[in-house]
Amino acid sequence: MPLIEFSNCGFYCREGDFYIDPWRPVERALITHAHSDHARWGSKYYLCHHDTKPLLQQRLGNNQYESIGWNAPVYINGVRITLHPAGHIIGSAQIRVESGGEVWVISGDYKIENDGLSGAFEPVQCHTFVTESTFGLPIYHWKPQAQIFSDIQSWISKNQAEGKSSILIAYSLGKAQRLLPCIAEVTDNILVHGAIYNIHEALINAGWNLPTVQKVSSETPKSLLKGSVVIAPSSAEGSPWMKKFAPYEIGICSGWMQVRGAFRRKNADAGFSLSDHADWKGLLEAVKGTGAERVYATHGFQFAFSRYLREQGFEAGEVRTEFGNEETTTPDHTASPP
């Protein structure tokens, strides 16, 4: 029997009697990161990284949480557990599970480039590696973050010169925080949607030093709205909430913007291929870095990616999960009235 089983609730370690990122309530849940498709309400006990705990508290409310640091072993029914940086968002972890000389690593979501905020991805040696494959096609190849940030800053400066607001559509947890240092270099007037403000406050209260933002509300002076830089979740697109910033341009920050014409189909003015997931090259680099004999691909282009791995000599397969893609499709459950 393998150390990790693929059950109808999630990744299950029978020997340790725990689940990793379960999508149904269980007794004991180990959480890779705080995105809503990986961290769900209803389990009795939660284990996560220290930086993920305040995010779970903000998103899931009061529960029985235990948090640990990087590479700090804990044992559950004799099974050794350690967490290692995934580089996806703040607090995101790969979970290493070891028993009887067998080692599995469940990656959750990850990216290879160090964004200066989420921690540097750390390849972890293992026998079996479970990898995401959100962008598991060769067409996905990211520009360096510095280049993308420069493009965003140039776009904001252009809009400022034309008297327009700049509205950046970005997921409230991860992308929004990653954008702040970039925007702060061109303006100190950063406005955010309530969903993003909630996450921002949770991180500030946990000790994170992030650029100052202002929550958009009915009391926000009109003088601040005009010509402002705004970060909003995709749930705000096309809503009456946007009208208060007119005239404005919309820029979508997502890996899907890599595909030609994607931002036009979204009725946006600009698209920036800023992703919190690994691109094709990054996925391959991660797999090779683990030295794994077996690789299982989950959500994304898992069939194409696993087929390619088999062609390269890996023992590879696919795993069906209920994880989504927070880049554009996962509902933002942190949203609050604007």
What do you see in this structure?
The chain has about 350 residues and is α/β, with parallel strands linked by helices. The protein folds into 2 domains: about 5-140 and about 275-320, Ribonuclease Z/Hydroxyacylglutathione hydrolase-like (Metallo-beta-lactamase, Chain A, 4-Layer Sandwich); about 145-270, Rossmann fold (3-Layer(aba) Sandwich), CATH 3.40.50. It has 8 helices and 19 strands. It has helices spanning about 55-60, 145-160, 175-185, 195-205, 220-225, 260-265, 280-290, 300-310, and strands at about 5, 10-15, 20, 30, 45-50, 65-70, 75, 80-85, 95-100, 100-105, 130-135, 165-170, 190, 215, 230, 250-255, 270, 295-300, 315-320. The strands form 3 sheets. Strands 7-8-9-10-11-18-19 form a 7-stranded mixed β-sheet, with helices on one face. Strands 1-2-3-4-5-6 form a 6-stranded mixed β-sheet, with no helix packed on it. The termini are far apart. Residues about 325-338 have low confidence and may be disordered.
